[in-house]
C-alpha cells in the first residue's frame, strides 16, 4: 500500500464537511486542541462537550457548539451523541502522577464515561468511535528500570496495569473491542504516552511533568529562589509527545480501517530522564537551579517509552516533534500564563 492510500484523515476519508463530530473532554487540554484542529480542517458541525462550566474551558473555539454536560450520566451521553457521525471520547477525570496515584477512585469512575458514551454513540448510529487510552494500561512489571525497553502494543497482557487509572483504560479498551465485535461499531483506541503543549494544565495539582517543571523554573526566576524540587531521584525516564502530533495522530488512527478495535501507541519515542527534562527547561529559562529531590513524592514507574514500530509500519508516520522544539513553545506559553495570572488576568485553570 502506498503512503497516500494508507494515511487517511477526516478530510480525505470522505467524511462530509457538515458531518456531526462530537468531542468530549473538550474543555480540557487534548479535547480542546482536537476541536480546534477539526475546526481548522474546515468541519462545520463540531460539538464540544465537557462537565466543566464554560468559563473554565481552556479554549473557546468560535463556530463550535459547546455544551456543559457530565457524560458519566446516561442521559447526558445520549444528548452529547445526538446525530453524531464521529465521536471522540477524551473526557476523563485525570491528571499527572500526583493526581492518579492519589485519586484512584475518581480515575476508576471514568469507566462510567466510556460505558455511557460508547452505547450512546452506537445508538445514535455513529460511524466511528475514538477512545483515548494511555500507556498506563501497560504491565507495570515491564517498567521497573529507567533503561527498560520501549513498550509495544502486546505488552498490555498479561495485565498488571497502573492501579486505578490504568485498569480503567484497559477495561474501556475492551468495551471498544467488544462493540466492534458484537455490534459492528468501528472503534479506534490510541494509547497516549505523556502529551504536553500550550493550553494544558500547568498548576494546581493535575499538571504533568513538562508543565510542572517549566512552571517551577519560571517561578524560581521570578521569586529569586534559585532551587527546584524534583519528584523521585530524577532518573525515571519517559517520552513526551507534542500536542500537534497528538491531534494529527488521533485523526490518522481514527480513519485507518486496519486499526479498527486495535490498541496502538501514540507517543514519542524520544526518551529522556526527568533530570534531563529539568536541564532542558533550565536552558530555556537561561538559568541553573539547585536541585533537591523528594523520594517520597509520587513518581510513577521507573521507565517508560513508546515502541513505534507498529504505528510506523501501519501509518508510515510517528510523532516527530523534537522535545526541545515543543518544550520551547510550551515554556513560552506557561511564562505568559504566569505573567497574566500575576497581573490578575484570566488564565487556564482547574476547578474541583
Ligand atoms: P484534561 O484533564 O485536560 O481533559 C479532560 C477533560 O475531561 C477535562 O476538561 C474534564 O473536565 C473532562 N471531564 C472529566 N469528567 C467528565 C465527565 N464526566 N463529563 C464530561 N467531561 C468530563 O486531560 P487531557 O490531558 O486532555 O486528557 C484527555 C484524554 O487523554 C483522557 O482520556 C486522558 O486519560 C488521556 N490521556 C492523556 C495523557 C496526557 O499526557 N495528557 C496521557 C495519556 C492519556
What can you tell me about this protein's structure?
The protein is of the alpha/beta class and 352 residues long. The protein is 37% helix and 15% strand. It has a seven-stranded parallel beta sheet, sandwiched between helices. Strands 7-10 form a two-stranded parallel sheet. Strands 8-13 form a two-stranded parallel sheet. Helix 2 links the parallel strand 1 and strand 2. Helix 3 packs across helix 6 and helix 8 crosses helix 12. The model has no long low-confidence stretch (mean pLDDT 94). The site of nicotinamide-adenine-dinucleotide has 26 residues, from helix 2 and strand 5.
List cofactors, ions and other ligands. nicotinamide-adenine-dinucleotide
Number of helices: 12
Q: Beta-strand percentage?
A: 15-25%
Secondary-structure element string: HEHEEHEHHHEHEEHEEEHEEHEHH
| Low-pLDDT regions | none
- Tell me, what's the shape? globular
In terms of structural class, how would the helical and strand content be classed? alpha/beta
How much helix is in the residues? Answer: 25-40%
Please give the alpha-carbon distance between the first and last residues: 48 Å
Number of strands: 13
Major sheet: 7 strands, parallel
Summarize model confidence as the mean pLDDT: 94
Strand order across the biggest sheet? 3-2-1-4-5-6-11
Rg estimate, integer Å: 19 Å
Furnish the topology, listing elements before pairings.
Layout: H1 3-6, E1 21-24, H2 29-40, E2 46-50, E3 65-68, H3 74-80, E4 86-89, H4 97-100, H5 104-109, H6 111-123, E5 128-134, H7 165-183, E6 186-192, E7 195-196, H8 209-223, E8 227-231, E9 237-239, E10 241-242, H9 243-254, E11 264-266, E12 271-273, H10 274-285, E13 290-294, H11 309-315, H12 323-342
Parallel strand pairs: 1-2, 1-4, 2-3, 4-5, 5-6, 6-11, 7-10, 8-13
Antiparallel strand pairs: 9-12
The protein binds nicotinamide-adenine-dinucleotide (NAD).
Amino acid at each position: 500500500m502506498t503512503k497516500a492510500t494508507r494515511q487517511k484523515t477526516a478530510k480525505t476519508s470522505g467524511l462530509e464537511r457538515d458531518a456531526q463530530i462530537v468531542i468530549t473532554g473538550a474543555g480540557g487540554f487534548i479535547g480542546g486542541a482536537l476541536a480546534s484542529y477539526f475546526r481548522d480542517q474546515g468541519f462545520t458541525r463540531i460539538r464540544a462537550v465537557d462537565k466543566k462550566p464554560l468559563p473554565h474551558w481552556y479554549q473557546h473555539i468560535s463556530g463550535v457548539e459547546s455544551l456543559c454536560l457530565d457524560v458519566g450520566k446516561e442521559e447526558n451521553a445520549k444528548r452529547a451523541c445526538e446525530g453524531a457521525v464521529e465521536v471522540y471520547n477524551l473526557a476523563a477525570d485525570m491528571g499527572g502522577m500526583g493526581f492518579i496515584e492519589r485519586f484512584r477512585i475518581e480515575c476508576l469512575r471514568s469507566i462510567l464515561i466510556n460505558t455511557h458514551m460508547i452505547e450512546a454513540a452506537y445508538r445514535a448510529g455513529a460511524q466511528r468511535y475514538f477512545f483515548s487510552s494511555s500507556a498506563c494500561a501497560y504491565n507495570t512489571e515491564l517498567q521497573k528500570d529507567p533503561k527498560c525497553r520501549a513498550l509495544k502494543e502486546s505488552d498490555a497482557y498479561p495485565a498488571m496495569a497502573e492501579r486505578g487509572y490504568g485498569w480503567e483504560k484497559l477495561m474501556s479498551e475492551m468495551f471498544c473491542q467488544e462493540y466492534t465485535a458484537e455490534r459492528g461499531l468501528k472503534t479506534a483506541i490510541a494509547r497516549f504516552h505523556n502529551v504536553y503543549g500550550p493550553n494544558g494544565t500547568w498548576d494546581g495539582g493535575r499538571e504533568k511533568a513538562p508543565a510542572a517543571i517549566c512552571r517551577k523554573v519560571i517561578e524560581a526566576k521570578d521569586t529569586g529562589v534559585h532551587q527546584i524540587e524534583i519528584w523521585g531521584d530524577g532518573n525515571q525516564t519517559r517520552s513526551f509527545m507534542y500536542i500537534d502530533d497528538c491531534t494529527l495522530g488521533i485523526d490518522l488512527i481514527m480513519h485507518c480501517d486496519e486499526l479498527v478495535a486495535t490498541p496502538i501507541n501514540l507517543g514519542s519515542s524520544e526518551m529522556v530522564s526527568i533530570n534531563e527534562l529539568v536541564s532542558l527547561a533550565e536552558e530555556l529559562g537561561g538559568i541553573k537551579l539547585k536541585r533537591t529531590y523528594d523520594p517520597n513524592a509520587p513518581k510513577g514507574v521507573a521507565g517508560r517509552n513508546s515502541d513505534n514500530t507498529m504505528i510506523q509500519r501501519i501509518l508510515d508516520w510517528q510523532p516527530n516533534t523534537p522535545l526541545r522544539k515543543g518544550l520551547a513553545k510550551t515554556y513560552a506559553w506557561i511564562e505568559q500564563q504566569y505573567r497574566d495570572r500575576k497581573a490578575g488576568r484570566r488564565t487556564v485553570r482547574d476547578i474541583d
